[in-house]
Structure formats: C-alpha cells, structure tokens
C-alpha cells in the first residue's frame, strides 16, 4: 500500500525541479539561439556573456542528466524519473512505461549524456586531446519539449496511483513571465546601446 500524499509530494518536488530547469533552458535559448539577441550580447559584453553561456550550458546538461539518471547509485537513491518509475512501478501501465522509455531514448539520442560525461563531468583524456570526438545533437526547442514530456509523464504517473483523485498539485510556473525573461534583457541592453550611440 502506498501513501499517495507522499507520492504527490515527491512528484511535486520533481516538477519544481523541472520548472526551474525549463526556465533556465528557455532563458538560454532566448539569449543564445536568436541571432538578433546574440548580436546585442556581442555588442555589449561579449566576453562576459560567453562565460555565462558556457556556465548555463553546463548547468542545464548536468541538471537534465540528473533528472534522467538511473534510480540508484550504490546504496543511495537518485531522485530521478527512473526513481519515480521504479518506486511506483506496480501502478503503472504499459503505455506509461513506454512513455518513460521514450523520454530516456530521446535524451540519449541527443548525445547529451555521453557529451556531459566525457566533456563536463570528467576531463576524459582522449576527449580533451582530441583523440576522440564527443558532440551533442541538442537543437533549439529540444530540451523544452523533452521537459514538457517529463511533466506530462509525472502528472500521468500521479493520476495512475490509487487515491490520487482528491489530490491536486499547486501550479508550478514553467515559463518565464514576459517582461522578466531573456527578451526583456536583450531589449534593455539594446536600449543601452542606442542611448550610448545617440
């Protein structure tokens, strides 16, 4: 017998992590995947924004990998999608199990796990010295779409648990609010540039 309130608390925590990562990914894309935004960043503080870009990318990949990590490492549990799936497996149907597999396969297909492992988590000698090449296939929109699938999975998982009918999760803001996002930052930077040039 499971405690549905504890399960809801775990799912809510997981969703809050996903929301935080999604906001970071969206901000990254607004700043670094839009040609006009990149030109504004390069016109203001290119070296600083280059460092911020790398830091954000490392953060995003590391956090995404953690959210899709295996359920345990040694004697310690990893709070991941696989952990939730394993813990509540007896209540999941084939469709939900396949949904989890599809999410993990999509992340793997992006080459993100191997890239993070070799180029970020460890200074793999052959990768550092160019004896082996590791790259990723992450494109604009890939990670937000993947996170949306993970959110959907979590909500379906919670719905599949006995006694979940009376439980509702507090809405988590997954998106940056207009006026408090990367678009607004670029607008302000552009205004500063225009002011300096006039």
Q: End-to-end span in angstroms?
A: 70 Å
The total domain count is 1
Give the topology string: H per helix, E per strand: HHHEEHHHHHH
Total DSSP helices: 9
What is the helix fraction of residues, given as a range?
55-70%
Taking the sheet with the most strands, its summary is: 2 strands, antiparallel
Extended strand count: 2
Unreliable residue stretches: none
- Global morphology: globular
Order of strands across the main sheet: 1-2
Instruction: Output mean pLDDT.
Output: 89
Report the portion of residues in β strands: under 5%
Provide an overview of this structure.
There is one protein chain. This protein has 198 residues and is mainly α. The chain has one domain. The protein has helices at 4-32, 35-44, 46-67, 81-87, 94-109, 112-121, 125-128, 142-160, 182-197, and strands at 72-73, 76-77. Strands 1-2 form a two-stranded antiparallel sheet. Strand 1 and strand 2 (76-77) form a beta hairpin. It is globular, with a radius of gyration of 20 Å.
């Amino acid at each position: 017998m499971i405690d549905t309130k504890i399960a809801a608390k775990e799912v809510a925590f997981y969703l809050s992590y996903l929301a935080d990562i999604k906001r970071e990914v969206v901000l990254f894309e607004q700043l670094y995947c839009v040609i006009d935004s990149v030109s504004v960043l390069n016109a203001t503080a290119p070296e600083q924004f280059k460092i911020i870009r790398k830091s954000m990318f490392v953060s995003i990949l590391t956090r995404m990998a953690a959210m899709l990590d295996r359920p345990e490492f040694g004697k310690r549990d990893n709070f991941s999608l696989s952990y939730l799936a394993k813990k509540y497996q007896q209540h999941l149907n084939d469709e939900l199990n396949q949904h989890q597999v599809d999410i993990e396969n999509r992340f793997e297909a992006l080459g993100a796990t191997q890239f993070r492992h070799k180029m970020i988590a460890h200074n793999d000698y052959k990768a550092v010295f160019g004896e082996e090449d590791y790259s990723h296939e992450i494109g604009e929109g890939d990670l937000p779409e993947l996170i949306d699938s993970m959110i959907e999975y979590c909500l379906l998982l919670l719905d599949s648990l006995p006694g979940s009918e009376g439980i509702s999760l507090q809405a988590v803001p997954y998106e940056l609010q207009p006026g408090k996002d990367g678009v607004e930052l670029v607008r302000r930077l552009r205004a500063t540039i225009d002011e300096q040039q006039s």
